[in-house]
Automatic annotation (TrEMBL):
It comes from Owenia fusiformis. PROSITE patterns: EF_HAND_2, TBC_RABGAP. Keywords: GTPase activation, Repeat. Gene3D superfamilies: EF-hand, Pleckstrin-homology domain (PH domain)/Phosphotyrosine-binding domain (PTB), putative rabgap domain of human tbc1 domain family member 14 like domains, Ypt/Rab-GAP domain of gyp1p, domain 3. The keyword Cell membrane does not apply. CDD domains: PH-GRAM1_TCB1D9_TCB1D9B, PH-GRAM2_TCB1D9_TCB1D9B. The lineage of its organism: Eukaryota, Metazoa, Spiralia, Lophotrochozoa, Annelida. This is TBC1 domain family member 9. Residues 957-973, 1191-1217 have a biased composition (Low complexity). One of its GO terms (molecular function) is GTPase activator activity.
Length: 1275
């Protein structure tokens, strides 16, 4: 690749010359491709110095000059040789014609610069606002180094040092959406680190003696320290954002999605910055959040851009410098001097935007005049990008909905007048309740209220009224004195931003009230229980007027936002809102409070309030360290702050005093709560320092809070206030003390502290949830202690990871269920088939073969008891416990059930036979007779080619199987289950004396999982297994033992047990049919006798069928064991042939054995394996096995030709036919397995599941170091 010529002084330092001529030199970096100590030193030097040198380069030099110029670089020898050949073919002859070396050098430089310019211009034509090539290369390295999928998006990467013990390792820190990853390659050793953001418990900037600037990341088990950052502020800010999003995802099950809608015009004007799209997205989100917080805008408003300008303020006739902010629905201005002036102009209020020229008296360059529908003019000047701003505003105005302007009062009157509709009950929305109930009769109080009303009227006349008014420090002074009752609701609506949401959603509250009337929700009972506890001392809530209004508001909000629903503190806050605002205004104030001003405060876990507890503790420690030590010992801060913040002090201070605090809260935001709380503690600090127990501290605080009084209150006094003659504390003085002593606390500081404490609070909640989940499933699984905890953690990790990288939604939407408080803990996380398959293949000891995915699908069908295509943690824990820790009978029971409906469907057998048929599709025929070749044994199961006999998924997609709405050509699991249940019922009628008993004994429906009954399951309840199911079972067993240390002995045991069970099933069939015949002759009418006889004739044992089935099983065994097929087939077929010849002589003995096994109830749950084995031997199974072994040894010296064996197992259709009347019971299967010690040892040995979990977690770190031998990867 041609590069702009750069001067090189030391041409041979760390470089080796490969080719040279009088004008050019081709060099290779020392150590590249050669290995050794030189390569390690050079690679280490490049990594530490952050010098991303390509391994090959071409220098231009002249014979007499000592200065060289780099003109080409490449990462491979092929690329650099192409450039070298071009130089020799096109420039060498021309350069020889120059007489002066300086002219030749200038010619080469100009030629190379022209080549570079042409390449760059061609690239710029195809690239528009994309990541730089360097960043794309870094993203590729990130995915390769850490085995990340392409869905894991990289945000940015930074050079830093990771402190491993006391030794720093220089490398690169990659920050992606879900992980923080570190990679280092020094002195031939590489270091890797992967940290999930969902595992982070603490994130802070630290200091040490050597490097004062460092970042510490803490998880539950480890702390990681990084230092030597070039841009530590930017790095830490991105870390905070990503960790914060991860915590929100844990609480809400939402995922991070890149915002493609934010405008990028400002970045296009500036020089192109080397950052990712996600980095710009995060920066834009942070700016938009700050923008919404400052101006109290709706949650979906996104900042488009801002520019510096001046605003003409008519009340003092000055030009104020500040910045104008533009978004799709609002035009805002904030002065440079904090709180000097600010305005919010909704686009819906703007009528005209125009340029203004320079007048003769005043010079106003680049001015812009904005006129509202209320005939108010706003003049902006000194705007450098006036044309662009005008275009933006005009564009946004053109997108506004065409809705007629409605004033605040007119809109309210319209909603009230249209409440009644035909056929619906009359709903009368209440105005502010204070208007309906009496005030105090004191002339003094009335005079104070009148003075405040007059001051506000003057303020409105001077600064405007409504959403577009000038917001100045004068407004703040009036609010500190107290807002008159008549204006309180309007002020709350204005400064909380609720007026914007109500104006843009006319009639919304009315419609939602109509929808929720008479409807039962999860929150309905709690709301009804708390209605009469809400401000009971006020007359408004001693009647149905206030109670009905409160019920409607709370029910409507629970209907609107089921994620929050209802929290007990909401009734107290809403009741006070209803006193000063209308019913609809109260609803929108509640929306603003729960969703913007106090986020996450009122959900089921009150996460926001718990976070603010931690923030308050840190503020107390910062401003009152001596008092903090005392209160922390008593645990007082956490004891009192939750009720203070949840109710905005309404539960601890008389409401007529607390409304003054609410006035300041709606104007200044959350910082007011912390200022007032600190002022309260500071006021009684001397008394608190002398207390000895928490009871005394609570008494002191309660006495002080009860003494707070509002001297300007107009509400009727309560009985307690009349009896209390103690000295009062004026609430206005308390609020002013908070501003005066703790005014340095800002909302930005509070937000930063919230980010810090959110990690700790959310992780504490997650730990508590884990304990509850584990406690709820302990009785249903054999996993205990650390094993169960690790299984839960890996189950949750896979659930979260799959949600992060999911390209489609889950099969079933469970959003309506997750708000149910009665929902079991283990239902919190559910996985679909794709997620379950990943976990099963990684953790199950039965997933070693080619058919592991088929086993996973059958296990998923078994566990999915409620047919929702999801598996919860209780079901998954039971499955892992049964596979890894259960005893042998329990494992055999599970394996047996996996080959019965609903786990094994008739379509599975049909698809398997089609794949193995010689007459099948030619594309499949080539693989039907051989085991597929695995290209890379280290690849996961999902990367293996599909072997013969594996599950053929319709349409190539698992979703088509699991979706209940699958197309007709891809029948879903739901449809196949209904067919399988019918088939199972028919099979049970044919194979059991009492088919109903077999179905009732099944776990759930169709032998489905039911953890409550599985531990003491009666074995006789399991249905009989037919020959098709038996063949699939034996294929599973052959597949299970691959790469096992005892592989050969296990295959031999399986062949022996399989032959034994085939004989038992054949012998037992005659007895079973005779018993069925006698039963049918006694119960069926005469008209059915013919059919019964025909059935008996048709189902006589066929000598041709059994050898074919045995040969089929032996063929599978020979493939798995790697032996020639003919020898195994010969042995099995010869054994079967002699067995069939002697079947008459053995009939009486085998029928006796069958009868005794079926009649005797083996209690395998409560007996050790040795006792079970002895009991089975006593029933005569040992004799059959010994006879079989003897016959096998006699025939070992009589080989059969391979052609004969193939001919004997072939039928006219090419597929071995199975006997529909052949069947075995679970007792026979278990008894036969117990006769083979290798099988007993294999299934008896418990599996350490923690090793499998550790390997699964570290799979992204398993990259062979040998791939980087010689030269480290280019970072």
């Amino acid at each position: 690749m041609w590069v702009k010529p750069e001067e090189v002084l030391l041409a041979n330092a760390l470089w080796v010359t490969e080719r040279a001529n009088p004008y050019f030199v081709l060099q290779r970096r020392k150590g590249h491709g050669g290995g050794g100590i030189t390569g390690l030193l050079v690679g280490t030097l490049d990594t530490v110095l952050d010098s991303k040198k390509q391994p090959y380069r071409i220098l231009h030099c002249t014979p007499s000059s000592e200065i060289s110029y780099t003109i080409a670089e490449a990462g491979s020898k092929k690329e650099i040789f192409q450039d070298w050949e071009w130089l020799e073919q096109n420039l060498m002859e021309t350069l020889a014609a120059f007489e002066a070396e300086e002219d030749a050098m200038e010619f080469v430089k100009c030629k190379i610069e022209s080549l570079v310019a042409s390449v760059c211009s061609a690239r710029q034509l195809d690239v528009e606002d994309e990541e730089t090539s360097d960043f794309k290369a870094a993203m590729g390295r990130f995915c390769k180094l850490f085995n990340m999928p392409t869905e894991e998006k990289l945000v940015n990467y930074y050079s830093c040092s990771y402190w491993k013990g006391k030794v720093p390792r220089q490398g690169w820190l990659y920050l992606s959406v879900n992980h923080a990853c570190f990679y280092s390659f020094l002195m031939g050793k590489e270091a890797k680190l992967i940290i999930r953001w969902t595992d982070v418990t603490k994130l802070e900037r630290g200091t040490n003696r050597l490097f004062p600037e460092s970042i510490n990341i803490s998880t539950r088990d480890t702390q990681f320290s990084f230092s030597m950052f070039v841009h530590i502020e930017e790095t830490f800010r991105i870390m905070e954002q990503l960790a914060n999003y991860a915590m929100k995802c844990l609480m809400s099950d939402e995922t991070f999605e890149a915002d493609v809608s934010f405008n990028n015009a400002s970045t296009q004007i500036k020089k192109k910055r080397k950052m990712s799209y996600l980095k710009r997205d995060l920066d834009a989100r942070a700016r938009s959040e700050a923008y919404r917080s400052i101006f109290r805008l709706p949650a979906n408003e996104k900042l488009d851009g801002d520019v510096e300008c001046t605003l003409w303020t008519p009340y003092n006739k000055q030009h104020v410098w500040g910045r104008i902010y533009i978004s799709s629905h609002y035009l805002c201005f904030a002065s440079r001097v904090k709180s000097l002036v600010a305005i919010v102009i909704p686009m819906r209020e703007i009528s005209v935007v125009e340029k203004t020229g320079m007048s003769s008296g005043n010079v106003l360059p680049n001015s812009l005049l904005v006129t509202t529908k209320g005939k108010i003019n706003y003049l902006f000047a000194n705007m450098p990008d006036r044309k662009l701003v005008l275009e933006k505003i005009s564009d946004f105005l053109s997108r506004q909905p065409t809705v007629d302007k409605m004033t605040f009062e007119a809109e309210k009157d319209m909603v009230d007048s249209n409440l009644t509709k035909p056929g619906q009950p009359t709903i009368e929305l209440e105005p502010a309740l204070f208007k309906r109930f009496m005030r105090r009769g004191s002339d003094d109080i009335s005079a104070k209220e009148a003075v405040k009303e007059n001051l506000w009227q003057i303020h409105f006349a001077e600064y405007g009224r409504g959403i577009c008014m000038y917001r100045t420090h004068k407004t703040h002074e009036l609010i500190l004195r107290g807002v008159p009752d008549i204006y309180r609701g309007e002020i709350w609506m204005l400064y909380s931003g609720a007026i914007n949401e109500m104006s843009t959603h006319p009639g919304y509250y009315q419609s939602i009230v109509e929808q929720s009337i008479g409807k039962y929700t999860i929150a309905s009972d709690e709301i009804e229980r708390d209605l009469h506890r809400s401000l009971p001392e006020h007359p408004a809530f001693q009647t149905d007027i206030g109670i009905d209004a409160l019920r409607r508001v709370l029910t409507a909000y629970a209907w609107r936002n089921p994620n929050i629903g209802y929290c007990q503190a909401m009734n107290i806050v809403t009741s006070v809102l209803l006193l000063y605002a209308s019913e609809e205004e109260t609803f929108w104030l509640l929306v603003a409070l729960c969703e913007r001003l106090l986020p996450d405060y009122y959900n089921t876990k009150v996460v926001g309030a718990l976070i603010d507890q931690g923030v308050f503790e840190e503020l107390v420690q910062q401003y009152m360290p001596s008092l903090y030590q005392k209160l922390d010992q008593l645990g007082l801060i956490t004891m009192v702050s939750l009720s203070w913040f949840l109710t905005l002090f309404l539960s601890v201070i008389p409401f007529d005093s607390a409304v003054n605090i609410m006035d300041c809260f709606f104007f200044d935001g959350a910082k007011v709560m912390f200022q007032v709380a600190l002022a309260v503690i500071d006021a009684v600090s001397e008394e608190l320092l002398n207390i000895k127990d928490d009871g005394s501290a609570m008494t002191i605080l309660s006495r002080y809070l009860e003494s707070i009084k509002n001297h300007d209150a107009t509400a009727p006094p309560s009985m307690d206030e009349k009896d209390n003659k103690k000295a009062k504390v004026d609430v206005s003085e308390l609020v002013q003390d908070g501003y005066r002593n703790f005014g340095m606390i800002t909302n930005q500081q509070v937000d930063k502290l919230r980010l810090k404490h959110r990690l700790k609070v959310v992780q504490t909640i997650e730990d508590s949830t884990m304990k509850n989940v584990i406690r709820s499933v302990m009785a249903d699984t054999v996993l205990k202690g650390k094993d169960l905890q690790e299984v839960y953690l890996v189950f949750k990790e896979e659930y979260l990871s799959s949600n992060f990288w999911r390209t489609s939604q889950q099969a079933v939407d469970v959003s309506a269920e997750k708000y149910d408080p009665s929902r079991p803990y283990y239902e919190q996380y559910k996985v679909d088939y794709d997620q379950f398959k990943t976990l099963f293949l990684a953790l199950s000891p039965w997933s070693a073969g080619y058919h592991a995915e088929t086993m996973a699908l059958r296990m998923f069908r078994l566990l999915d008891g409620n047919l929702d295509n999801m598996v919860n943690f209780k079901e998954f824990a039971w499955c892992m416990g049964a596979l890894c820790k259960a005893d042998l009978p329990a494992k055999m029971r599970l394996l047996y059930r996996l080959h019965l409906p609903p786990s094994l469907l008739p379509s599975d057998v049909i698809e398997s036979e089609e794949l193995e048929s010689p007459e099948a599709d030619p594309s499949k025929k080539s693989t039907s007779g051989s085991v597929p070749i695995i290209a890379n044994p280290g690849v996961s199961h999902t990367a293996h080619p599909q072997p013969p006999g594996s599950l053929d998924l319709p349409g190539g997609s698992v979703d088509s199987l699991l979706s209940p709405d699958s197309p007709s050509d891809a029948p879903s699991v739901m449809l196949e289950r209904s067919v399988s249940e019918t088939t199972s019922a028919t099979s049970s009628d044919n194979n059991s004396k009492d088919g109903s008993t077999a179905r009732k004994g099944s776990i759930g429906s169709g032998a489905r999982y039911d953890g409550s009954r599985d531990s003491k399951l009666d074995l006789v309840h399991l249905p009989r297994m037919n020959q098709e199911q038996f063949i699939q079972l034996w294929k599973t067993l052959y597949d299970m033992f691959q790469e096992h240390s005892e592989e050969q002995s296990l295959y031999h045991s399986i062949a022996t047990v399989g032959t034994l069970l085939l004989q038992i099933g054949e012998v037992g069939k005659q007895f079973y049919l005779k018993s069925e015949k006698s039963t049918n002759s006694n119960t069926e009418p005469e008209g059915f006798m013919v059919g019964s006889m025909d059935s008996e004739v048709d189902t006589k044992p066929s000598v041709d069928t059994e050898p074919a089935v045995e040969a089929d099983l032996a063929d599978d065994a020979s493939k798995m064991a790697g032996k020639p097929e003919s020898s195994n087939q010969t042995a099995v077929i010869n054994e079967s042939a002699i067995d069939k010849c002697d079947i008459k002589s053995e009939d009486s003995n085998d029928i006796k054995i069958q009868d005794e096994i079926n009649s005797k109830n083996l209690d395998t749950d409560n007996k050790p394996v040795q006792e079970i084995t002895e009991e089975i031997k006593s029933l005569g199974v040992k004799d059959v096995q010994d006879t079989q072994s003897a016959k096998s040894s006699q025939l070992s010296s009589q080989p059969m030709k391979s052609s004969d064996s193939k001919q004997s197992i072939s039928s006219s259709s090419g597929i071995p036919k199975t006997d529909s009347d052949w069947s075995i019971t679970f007792e026979q299967f278990l008894a036969s397995i117990l006769t083979e010690p290798p099988l007993v040892n294999f299934f008896e040995n418990p599996v350490d599941i923690q090793d499998a979990i550790e390997k699964f977690r570290n799979r992204r770190l398993m990259v062979k170091q040998s791939s980087f031998v010689g030269t480290p990867p280019s970072i």
